[in-house]
Design a protein that fits this description.
3 helices, mainly alpha
Length: 96
């Protein structure tokens, strides 16, 4: 169980950096057909699109806050997983 939690925390950390990379790339306006840009869009869009509907950029003067909201949500999930791991260690006395 601890290994699964550890792997999920690592994946969430990687996904956070992917979102940050996409946000930075959007500032420098890369070629939209570049394979790296397409890969980042394909990986992050399923998370960012619903957040954009929740807080549309037009409501904030064109500023897209969906990456910030996604990173905040990921951090909440990550800290929940870490708390779960610590509770499993405390409950059994030894890590699983």
């Amino acid at each position: 169980m601890m290994t699964l939690i550890y792997m999920l925390v690592i994946l969430l950390n990687i996904y956070t950096w992917v979102i940050i990379l996409r946000a930075v790339m959007s500032w420098v306006a890369p070629v939209p057909t570049h394979p790296l840009a397409l890969m980042l869009v394909n990986i992050t869009e399923p998370v960012l699109k619903p957040l954009r509907r929740l807080v549309p950029p037009s409501a904030l003067g064109g500023i897209d806050v969906s990456p910030i909201l996604a990173i905040l949500a990921i951090q909440v999930i990550r800290y929940g997983l870490i708390s779960l791991a610590y509770s499993l260690i405390d409950a059994s006395g030894t890590p699983l």
